[in-house]
Amino acid sequence: KDGPEAGRWGEGTGNWTGVSHYSQGIAAMGAAESFGMDGSHQAMAQLALDYLAHVQSVDGGWNYYTDRFRNLTRSDVSITGWCFMAAVKGRIAGLKVDPVMFEGPKRLIKAMGIDERVLDQGRIFYSIENGEIRDTLMYGREALHGIVALTLIHLGTPIESPSLQGTATYFRTH
Question: In 3-state terms, the chain is what percent helix, strand and coil (to 5)?
Fold first, then answer.
C-alpha cells in the first residue's frame, strides 16, 4: 500500500478497511512503544500514526471503521482513547505526530459536554455522530470513565479539575 493507507493493518473488502480502529490504535501504540524502547519498528510506527491522523473524524475522534467514501462524521469515545494513546506514545517516543491528534480529542470531549456534572453522576456519552451526542447506559461505563480520565490527564487537565474529580467521585461510589 502507498500513501496514507500504507500504515493500515489488514485488508478490507467492500466498504470497510478490514481492521477496526480499536485494533489499529492498539497496534500503533505497541509499535510506538517498541520504537521508544529500543529503536525498532520506527517506519511501522510512523506509518501507523500517519494513518490514524488520516482517518480521524471531523469532530476530533475516531470511529470503528472508515468507509470507502471517507465518511468521517462519527466518533466513539473508547476508540478515540486508544487512538489518542497511540499518539501519546508516539510523541513520547519522538515520532512525528500530527497536532490534530491532540487537538481533536480535546474538541470532542468539549463538544460532548463531558464535565464533572456528567462524570460524577455515572453518565458518560459514548459517541457523537453528525453533531448528535449518543448517551449510553450500557455495560462498561467504568472503562469509558477511565479512558476519558486518561485522555484528559494526557491533554494536561489538572488532577484537581472538576472533570477528573467527577470521575474520582464516580469510582469511589461505584
Answer: 55, 10, 35
Residue 26 and residue 73: Cα distance in Å, rounded?
22
Of 89, 25, 76, the C-alpha closest to 53 is: 25
pTM assigned to the model: 0.82
Residue 61 DSSP symbol: S
Q: What is the CA radius of gyration of the chain?
A: 16
Which tens digits make up the pLDDT trace of 36-49?
999 999 999 999 99
Distance of alpha carbon 127 from its chain centroid, rounded?
A: 12
- pLDDT tens, residue by residue, 73-123: 788 888 999 999 999 999 999 999 999 999 999 888 877 766 555 555 556
Distant-in-sequence, close-in-space partners of 143: CB < 8 Å, separation ≥ 6: 78
15 close to 49: Cβ distance less than 8 angstroms: no
Residue 57 Ramachandran class (φ > 0 left, ψ -120 to 50 alpha, else beta): beta
